[in-house]
Design brief:
about 425 residues; alpha+beta; Arc Repressor Mutant, subunit A; three-stranded antiparallel beta sheet; 12 strands; globular; disordered C terminus
């Protein structure tokens, strides 16, 4: 193989390994053997890349890899852990997760552990810590979610029986503990921590060199709003856009898109994001159709801003009554296609639609209504149009009704940044 081809292959492998770690910060030889082998093959380069570009710490051992990220910026969208179709983690679930980790780290705990013994230890520790943990179906579901996340990450392995069988029928099961990985589950040791204030004081401030902090925003967030960027990061975005574009594409396979009201680094392969949008399912379809309906109602012009919020907050404000009525109309229209649980519970549908849009930074809630960010218009269906003669000659025939998943913001709302 020619030297150039070898170098290109090595670069592509490193990029694939980096993308895998961004999407799955914990890899184990038991659950992801091929992915871990790739990370181990390029561990030296990956450690350097994550440290220099993002200030992330990569731990690579024989049986696992752990990418330790810095805390997200305060203005980042809230994205709690969610396992499959289960509800998102709540503060109570996170507390139970921490108690489960503490139980596994209890001196004298062996390599194998009964599920019932783990649960008993968590309950005992919860009582000692003043955490209320009742023996109710809802509390037990939270506990199962917390322990299930440790199984998902490969910290625990079901060797005899299963967590679901214990949850449903109290059937006993045996868990194997991945001892080398366990101390690295939390991003930093909890020595000398006796209260939440002690823990907060150990967390890094998040403030760092503006180039790294801007890269982290673009890699981790679905949308970076210009009005929320510190002045030094805005300056980097304006002055070093070409270099930023090159680094994101070369190391993470992301394409940088910048407009006047915001920027994003989108993934043309669609494998990095933990939230698929647009996508199948009632909530995603309802969110897409709702943003389209609200934009048609508001008819915002270029530079439209939220009334009373100042000139630095672009967006379209729609009163909650209008949001509810539009969503009710959509639910009535698509009643046969959408899940019956949402049709029967309009409040739940609205809550989950708004939560999805907020997690994508495409909307935010105010007491008076829902604010759509101009970036929401990038997902609007394209109008039916006849291709121009030049387009026909080049073969660029637009697809009627196509919804862009990563091309351009709608130019009616977002102007090209200078």
């Amino acid at each position: 193989m020619p030297h150039g081809s070898t170098a290109q292959h090595e670069t592509a492998e490193r990029r694939m390994a980096a993308r895998t770690l961004l999407a799955q910060p914990v890899l184990t030889s038991h659950r992801q053997p091929d992915e871990l082998a790739l990370v181990r093959r390029h561990s030296v380069a990956l450690r350097s890349t994550f440290a220099k570009l993002l200030s992330y710490h990569l731990i690579v051992e024989t049986s696992f890899a752990r990418l330790v990220k810095t805390p997200p910026s305060p203005d980042s969208p809230l994205r709690p852990v969610q396992r499959g179709d289960s509800p998102p983690f709540t503060p109570q679930t996170y507390a139970l997760f921490s108690l489960a980790c503490a139980a596994l780290l209890t001196p004298g705990t062996g390599e194998w552990l009964l599920i019932s013994s783990l649960v008993e230890q968590v309950r005992a520790d919860a009582a000692s810590a003043g955490v209320e943990l009742r023996d109710t179906p809802s509390e037990n579901r939270r506990l199962v979610q917390a322990v299930g996340l440790l199984i998902d990450w490969g910290v625990l392995t079901e060797t005899d029986g299963s967590l679901s069988a214990w949850s449903e029928r109290r059937e006993e099961g045996v868990l194997q503990i991945h001892r080398p990985l366990l101390p690295h589950v939390l991003p930093r040791p909890l020595r000398n921590v006796t209260s939440l204030s002690d823990l907060a004081s150990q967390l890094p401030s998040g403030a760092s060199e503006p180039r790294r902090s801007l890269r982290r925003r673009l890699v981790e967030n679905p949308l970076v709003k210009r009005e929320e960027l510190p002045e030094d990061e805005r300056d980097v975005l304006s002055r070093e856009r070409s270099e930023l574009t090159r680094l994101l594409e070369e190391h993470f396979g992301l394409t940088l898109e910048v407009r006047a009201e915001g920027a994003l680094a989108y993934d043309t392969e669609g494998t990095l994001s933990d939230v698929a949008y647009p996508g199948p399912g009632t909530v995603r379809q309802a969110a897409l159709l709702l943003t389209d309906a609200l934009t048609d109602l508001g008819r915002p012009t270029v530079g439209h801003h939220v009334p009373g919020a100042g000139a630095d907050v672009p967006g379209l404000l729609t009163p909650w009554d209008t949001v509810r009525s539009e969503l009710d109309a959509l639910a009535s229209r698509y009643a046969k296609a959408w899940a019956g649980a949402y049709i029967a519970d309009p409040a739940r549908l609205q809550k989950e639609v708004v939560a999805l849009l907020e997690s994508m930074a495409l909307a935010c809630s105010l007491p008076e209504g829902l604010v759509l960010h101009p970036a929401a218009a990038r997902y609007r269906p394209q109008p039916h149009a006849q291709p121009t003669r030049t387009a026909r000659q080049r073969g660029n025939t637009p697809r009627a009704g196509a919804s862009p998943s990563g091309a351009l913001f709608a130019e009616s709302l977002l102007r090209e940044a200078l």
